[in-house]
User: Fold this.
Amino acid sequence: MSIARHLRAILLLGLPLIGSNLAQMLLNVTDTVMVGWYGVEALAALVLGTSFFFSIFMLGNGIALAMMGRVSASLGAGDELQARRDTRMGMWLSILFGLAMLPVFWNSAAILRALGQQPAIAALAQDYLRILGFGLAPALVMMVIRAYLSAQERTAVLLWITLVGVVVNAGLNWIFIFGNWGVPEMGVRGAALASLLVNLISLLAQAIYASRARGLEHVQLFQRFWRPDWETFWAVARVGLPVGLTAVAEGSMFQASALMMGWIGTVELAAHGIALQIASIVFMVHMGLSNAATVRAGRAHGARDVRLLRDGALVSVALSLGVGLLTVLAFVFAGKWLTELFLDEANPASAEIVTYGVRFLMVAGIFQLFDLMQVMALGLLRGVQDTRVPMWMAGLSYWLIGIPASYLLAFVLGYGGVGLWFGLVLGLASAGGLMMWRFWRGPWLEG
Assistant:
């Protein structure tokens, strides 16, 4: 394949996935805005509840992320039967994990109080999680089907289903949160119910498409779904658990950074949150490209085509790096304007928040270059089904380098919030460097 054909293949796969990722973020933003209209306590409970939910979701989502590489490799080898077996057992694992986590959601108030949260807010967050907890299994199964459709290079439908979900979610929020159309006013519980229903609707739409779409119906994805396939079950679990733990390791580093920034000051924490939100939007672009790289690498690996694997990886990384360099310029030269988008000029603290936000975004320019390195390397490694060693690399980089470096630079050496961000840079640089080295020196590129 020529470079142009590689680029076209990555973009055809990646652009809908990027759009789907951004639309998923819009779902969360919609919940935050509409619950914020309802009340401050409800908003605090929502933020607390969603953070709790997504910490668990990231662990379970490792199944889908790992399965994307396995299914792509099976399809690359022309083995549609194995692709169906992997997907079906991925759904089994997702359902079992979702059911196992229900007691955790049901008793979440005690956990949140133990973590130092206010009892009233913890109780309200538990009300939210007792409803949304039933949506974990559908959400994870939906991610498994999303991985299967991505491996089949059917990503456009995922974008449209997510966009429809955004609209439906906003409408259901309006009904359940505020008690419109004769429905009792439910507040934050209404937001949970809306999210649960959207997950179920989106899952149904994806399942119908995956089983009946032209060119996919012969796979018979749900044929004898109830029958166990223990060999594949444990194979998917062995690959998926390290992926989930890798995501938790990275996510926990950012949770720890928010906690430490809160020790520095409220203004700094607000600026930190804004800078991370902007960086997260850009990260969705690299995540979409990473998922596309997983599919392309998996297909090449399954076909035992080393040149296709190597050239596709080079184009994927170069494309992500090009986007990264453009965003560096945006963060450096438009940091003030980007930060001001999140603030009310009438707020007396806005000017100080903008000052810190500009500084953090300048560091974020460096930060996101290493962030794209690690997410692209992870995508490529998942394509060749290498997940265990990257898990240990992530734990080393984030917990033994990133968090200690942030604390040292921020508090011991006295560089404050900027020092904390440079600590995050060091953690991500370690992860990106180690994982890139792992992929480019791996046996899958020999031959």
In short: The first helix runs from residue 3 to 38. The chain has a mean pLDDT of 88. The CA atoms of residues 25 and 280 lie 9 Å apart.
